[in-house]
From TrEMBL:
The lineage of its organism: Bacteria, Pseudomonadati, Pseudomonadota, Betaproteobacteria, Rhodocyclales. The keyword Nucleotide-binding does not apply. InterPro entries: Aminotrans_IV, Aminotransferase-like, BCAT-like_C, BCAT-like_N, Class-IV_PLP-Dep_Aminotrnsfr. This is D-alanine transaminase. SUPFAM superfamilies: D-aminoacid aminotransferase-like PLP-dependent enzymes.
Length: 290
């Protein structure tokens, strides 16, 4: 298992980080998860742009240039045994010699990267869809930053697992924000609806791709706030993320999503979107554009 740490590729067992690292003490850092298909990254530049936005948001200088990130990610893929992988990378504010909330001076950031297998939802899971629960979004007000401070997300996701479900849909002040680790789309009367980007949700790379594909294929879209009450009235619900791609939510808080014949089953637009997503991915890969 080869990982990247502070400029070096080395075996995981030899990768050492100080217990005084601010990532460990304060969750003072940011991260990205980049999907790799057949040893090629998908949307790498978009992920690196969001990394920059997260770093700007926590006032931490980017330790690497875009070209350096690209080269290191490519090298990481070369060290990985997995054709389809997810590259996890994180940057923390580094290890000081004392514990003080205020930014340290003269401390180098810690840069860490590793690859693990990418397991996207298989056909069986896609045919059934997954269950979700709703919960109050009790995270902070900078959910647009992809920071290491994921304890709220962890606890919220566990609520889903405790109910035998896959995801928790978050509701703030009566409006849906996103999932604990995904963005949310709703279909009602043929219209695809998703919340607008704001400080209350992560600007998903997959969210952008899905909206773009919808527009390109002439699907009516509405980017607007979604009331929690609209969820159970929806014809389809999907979660999107780099690892889940487009996945139907077919049960919500113990009730079936959708109506009549389609209740509790993945809907036609979601299946179509999944195919468009696969096709787009394949086109991008074939063209070697990503
Ligand atoms: N929202 C949250 C809170 C996430 O953690 C993630 C990613 O895991 C997403 C949305 C989806 O983002 P992306 O499509 O860039 O993977």
């Amino acid at each position: 298992d080869i990982v990247y740490l502070n400029g070096q590729f080395l075996p995981l067992a030899e990768a050492k980080v100080s217990p005084l690292d601010r990532g460990f003490l304060f969750a003072d850092g940011v991260y990205e998860v980049i999907p790799v298909y057949s040893r090629q990254t998908f949307r790498l530049d978009e992920h690196l742009r969001r990394l920059q936005a997260s770093l700007d948001g926590i006032r931490l200088a980017n330790p690497l240039s875009t070209a350096q990130w690209q080269a290191r990610v490519r090298e990481m893929i070369g060290h990985s045994p997995f054709d389809d992988a997810q590259i996890y990378l994180q940057v923390t504010r580094g290890a000081d010699d004392k514990r003080d909330h205020a930014f340290p001076t003269g401390v180098a950031p810690t840069v860490f990267m590793f690859a693990s297998p990418l397991v996207t939802p298989d056909e069986n899971l896609r045919r059934l869809g997954v269950g979700a629960v709703t919960a109050v979004d009790n995270r902070w007000l900078r959910c647009d930053l992809k920071t290491l401070a994921l304890l709220a997300n962890v606890l919220l996701r566990q609520q889903a697992v405790d109910h035998g479900c896959a995801e928790t849909i978050l509701v703030r002040d009566g409006f849906v924000t996103e999932g604990s680790a995904s963005n949310l789309f709703l279909v009602k009367n043929g219209v695809l609806v998703t919340p607008p980007k704001s400080h209350l949700m992560l600007p998903g790379v997959t969210y952008d791709v899905v909206l773009d594909l919808a527009v390109r294929h002439g699907v009516p879209t509405e980017v607007r706030e979604i009331l929690a009450d609209e969820l159970l009235d929806a014809d389809e619900l999907w979660m999107t993320s780099s690892t889940k791609e487009v996945l139907a939510i077919t049960r919500l808080d113990g009730r079936l999503v959708g109506h009549g014949e389609g209740a509790g089953k993945p809907g036609p637009l979601g299946e179509q979107m999944w195919r468009w997503y696969q096709q787009f991915k394949n086109d991008v890969m074939r063209a070697g554009r990503d």
